[in-house]
Write a structure and sequence with these properties.
By secondary structure, the chain is α/β, with parallel strands linked by helices. It is about 40% helix and about 20% strand. It has three domains: about 80 residues, Winged helix-like DNA-binding domain superfamily/Winged helix DNA-binding domain (Arc Repressor Mutant, subunit A, Orthogonal Bundle), CATH 1.10.10; about 130 residues, Nucleotidyltransferase, domain 5, CATH 3.30.420.40; about 160 residues, ATPase, nucleotide binding domain (Nucleotidyltransferase, domain 5, 2-Layer Sandwich), CATH 3.30.420.40. The strands form four sheets. It has a five-stranded mixed β-sheet. Strands 12-11-10-13-14 form a five-stranded mixed β-sheet, with helices on both faces. Strands 1-2 form a two-stranded antiparallel sheet.
Length: about 375
C-alpha cells in the first residue's frame, strides 16, 4: 500500500475513535454536539456514526429536549457491547464479576472453593468460571477476557506469581487458567487490581496511597495517574511496613508489620468476632472493649497514613473489604490522630473511601480488558 493509502486509513480510524470516545465521555450526545465539539464536518460525523452503529458499538436511544425544531437523537455507546470477567482469588473462596465498558460491575458473586496449587483446583475454578458465563448467557464473542486478581506478587510480565506466601501460591502460572479457558486470560496482584479500580473511579487523581483493607492487607501507590510497580513489582506493599519491631509475627516472617494490626484478619483476631458481627456491636456503642479495639485499629492505620503522607504527598484511599464499614466519625478520628502529630495537615477531602468492598480486586482486574478495549477503538 502506498503512503497516501495508509494515511487515509489511519485518519479514518482516528476520526472513528474520536467520535466513539466523545460519545463515551458524554454518555449521551447529539450529532450536532459532536460536529461542534470535535470540529468535524457533518458528513464525516454522519459517516462515522453509521460505521459505529453498524459495528454495534453505539445506538440512537431516546431524544434530547427540543429547543425548537426537530428533536435530536441521543447517541450512546452500548455499554455491554463487550464485557470483561474479573476474578478475585482468596484462600477459601473466589469472587467473580462481569464488568461493562463503563466499568460497572453488573454481576458479582462469591463462590466457596478452598485454594490449592493443584491441577484439580484449577480445573474446578475454571469450570465454575465457564458455568458462570454459561448460566448468565454471556455470549462468547462479547467476552474480552478473564482477568484474575490473586494474593501474591506477580512477575513483571504477569505470567506467574513470584511471591505468594499467604495462599502458598508461589509459582501460580497464568497458563493454569489460560489453558483451561477459551478466552484471553490475565494475572494480577490483587492490591494492584484494587488500585486500578480506585484509579478508574478517581480519574482526577495524579497520585494517591491506597490502603486495601481486605482479610489480608494490601496497598498500592499511584503516581502520575499510574500504579507504581517498582523494580521488583513490590511497590506499595504497605502491609509489610514495620510499625512495631516487637509486634506480632507476620506471615512474611517478620514482626509488627501493618498487616498484623490493620488487616481484617487482625481485627477479627483482636475482637474474637467476625467483621460482620464486629461492626454492629461497635456502632451500638455498648461495649467499651469493642470501641477500644476499633480505636487501636484506627490509631495504627493513622500512624501509617501519617508516615506515608510524608513520602507521597497525596490523597489516601481506604479500599477493599472494610472500606464500606467506615463512617464519617472514623475519618474524623483518623484525621485528628494524623494532624495531631504531623507538620503538614491533611485535609478531610484527602481521605477517600472506596465503595466496592470485597469485590474491589475482582472488578479492578476486569478493568484491564475494558481499558485495553477502549484504547483499541
Ligand atoms: Zn509482614
Amino acid at each position: 500500500m502506498n503512503e497516501k493509502g495508509l494515511t487515509t486509513i489511519s485518519l479514518k480510524k482516528i476520526n472513528k475513535s474520536k467520535v466513539y470516545q466523545y460519545i463515551y465521555q458524554k454518555k449521551a450526545a447529539s450529532k450536532l454536539q459532536i460536529v461542534q465539539d470535535l470540529q468535524m464536518g457533518l458528513s464525516t460525523v454522519s459517516q462515522n456514526l453509521n460505521i459505529l452503529e453498524e459495528d454495534g458499538l453505539i445506538e440512537r436511544n431516546g431524544y434530547f429536549d427540543s429547543t425548537g425544531g426537530r428533536k435530536a437523537h441521543a447517541i450512546r455507546i452500548i455499554p455491554d457491547f463487550r464485557i470483561a470477567i474479573g476474578i478475585g482469588i482468596l484462600k477459601n473462596m473466589f469472587h467473580v464479576t462481569a464488568v461493562d465498558l463503563y466499568g460497572n460491575a453488573f454481576y458479582t458473586d462469591t463462590i466457596t472453593l478452598p485454594y490449592s496449587n493443584t491441577s484439580s483446583y484449577y480445573e474446578q475454578v475454571t469450570g465454575k468460571i465457564k458455568e458462570f458465563i454459561c448460566e448468565n448467557r454471556y455470549e462468547a464473542k462479547k467476552i474480552l477476557g478473564v482477568s484474575i486478581a490473586t494474593q501474591g506478587i506477580t512477575s513483571p510480565d504477569h505470567a506467574a506469581v513470584t511471591y505468594g506466601t499467604i495462599m502458598d501460591n508461589t509459582g501460580m502460572d497464568l497458563r493454569d487458567f489460560s489453558q483451561r479457558l477459551p478466552y484471553p486470560c490475565h494475572l494480577e496482584h490483587d492490591s494492584k487490581s484494587a488500585a486500578a479500580l480506585e484509579l478508574w473511579s478517581h480519574k482526577e487523581l495524579d497520585s494517591a496511597v491506597i490502603f486495601l483493607l481486605n482479610r489480608n492487607m494490601g496497598g498500592a501507590i499511584i503516581t502520575d495517574h499510574q500504579i507504581h510497580q517498582g523494580s521488583t513489582m513490590h511497590s506499595g506493599t504497605i502491609e509489610h511496613i514495620c510499625i512495631n519491631p516487637d509486634g506480632p509475627l507476620c506471615y512474611c516472617g517478620n514482626r509488627g508489620c501493618l498487616e498484623t494490626y490493620c488487616s481484617a484478619n487482625a481485627l477479627e483476631h483482636a475482637s474474637g468476632l467476625s467483621v460482620k458481627e464486629f461492626f454492629p456491636l461497635l456502632r451500638g456503642k455498648k461495649s467499651p472493649r469493642i470501641v477500644q479495639i476499633w480505636e487501636d485499629y484506627l490509631n495504627h492505620l493513622a500512624f501509617a497514613m501519617k508516615n506515608l503522607n510524608m513520602v507521597i504527598d497525596a490523597p489516601v484511599i481506604i479500599s477493599g473489604y472494610l472500606a464500606p464499614y467506615f463512617m464519617e466519625e472514623d475519618i474524623d478520628y483518623l484525621l485528628r490522630y494524623i494532624n495531631s502529630a504531623s507538620p503538614f495537615a491533611l485535609e478531610k477531602n484527602y481521605i477517600l473511601v472506596g465503595v466496592h468492598g470485597q469485590y474491589t480486586p475482582a472488578i479492578g482486574a476486569a478493568l484491564f480488558y475494558v481499558e485495553k478495549f477502549l484504547q483499541s477503538i
